[in-house]
Amino acid sequence: MAEERHSFPCQQCGAQLSYQPGTQHMVCGHCGHQHQISIDNRGIDEVDFYSALDQIQDTQTQIVSLAVKCHNCAAEFEFDKNIHADECPYCGTKIVNDSHEYRHIKPWGVLPFKITADEATTAYKKWLKRLWFAPSKLKKYARKNQKLNGMYIPYWTYDCATRTRYVGERGTFYQVPQRVRVRVNGRWTTQTRMVTKIRWQKVSGRVGRHFDDILIFASNSLPRNMARELAPWDLQHAVPYQEEFLSGFRSEMYQTDLQQGFDIARQRMHPVIKSDISADIGGDQQRIHNAETEYGNIQFKHLLLPFWVAGFRFGKKSYQFIVNARTGEVQGERPYSKWKIFFTALLFLILVVLLLGFFGLSQIHNAPLDTPIFEDLIYILPDFQ
Length: 385
Prior knowledge:
Layout: E1 17-19, E2 25-28, E3 34-36, E4 47-48, H1 49-54, E5 62-69, E6 76-78, E7 85-87, E8 94-96, E9 100-105, E10 109-110, H2 117-129, H3 136-145, E11 149-184, E12 187-217, H4 224-228, E13 239-240, E14 250-251, H5 258-281, E15 285-314, E16 317-324, E17 330-332, H6 338-359, H7 361-366, H8 372-380
Parallel strand pairs: 10-15, 11-14
Antiparallel strand pairs: 1-2, 2-3, 4-15, 5-6, 5-9, 7-8, 10-13, 11-12, 11-15, 15-16, 16-17
């Protein structure tokens, strides 16, 4: 079981080569020499899920990396043993190199960086400008202290064939005449109206579906919903794992293991299977009383996807921003300014008072609720919520 290393010295000056985003070569930061990366075009193999679980301790499927753990956000990532102190790329907390060995399944594929640090910074600043109710100091602080870190984040993908047996009911609409009492012009009268009812019929059956490349975020260092908003990913451009693409970047160790990842994938499959059952039942409405699903031919891949990450502390809290290093899509956490919210609410109240004064309190007091005056107010007010 070998330790994973990402060291590529320049052939001209001996300095470290780093992968250049959006290209197929590494560049020396000292002399500018370029080294072409020989791309492996064999494709990325998928591995049988249950065989991998049985052989999870096999030295052929695992590698050893030096990792450090942030005590603030619990992220585990690679840390250069030659660096004594640094900061966490996720939350900005200062950390000291106290690295340990981390055994993990070796990635089979990597989606290389495409967006450069400068392009990510531009997207990041545009995102900051669009933040409503953010403290003014936040934007100034973030621009001054921002530090985007290039990170490869672990993901699992799962393929699975499902077969589901179900028992339920099919509902069909039908109409019947019904005598009802209604008030017309101030007088009660009896009328015949058609009323819709549902006729239920017991049904059972089977549905099947093949799921392909269900992408599961395997990190706990970032909010899962925030990472999901960075989709879609152009996985068709992923290449077999080559350390050259990681040179100059950090990579995080997965914290959601292989079994946990599939459990999350099954949760993703559930609403799709439920929709398939409803379509198979047919009718106007459906009831599903019981459904039993078998999962077969499960295969998976372990991939590394590229992120630009900015983490910093503002006030007493940590905030995170992430950029999809393929598309430039930005997602992040943000604080809110209580003063900005207060003054906005105050402005809203002043506007309401001015509207009341404009229409005239006496006129409004005597007007029924269905007058244009109240209709205008009801139309306007939701826009300020």
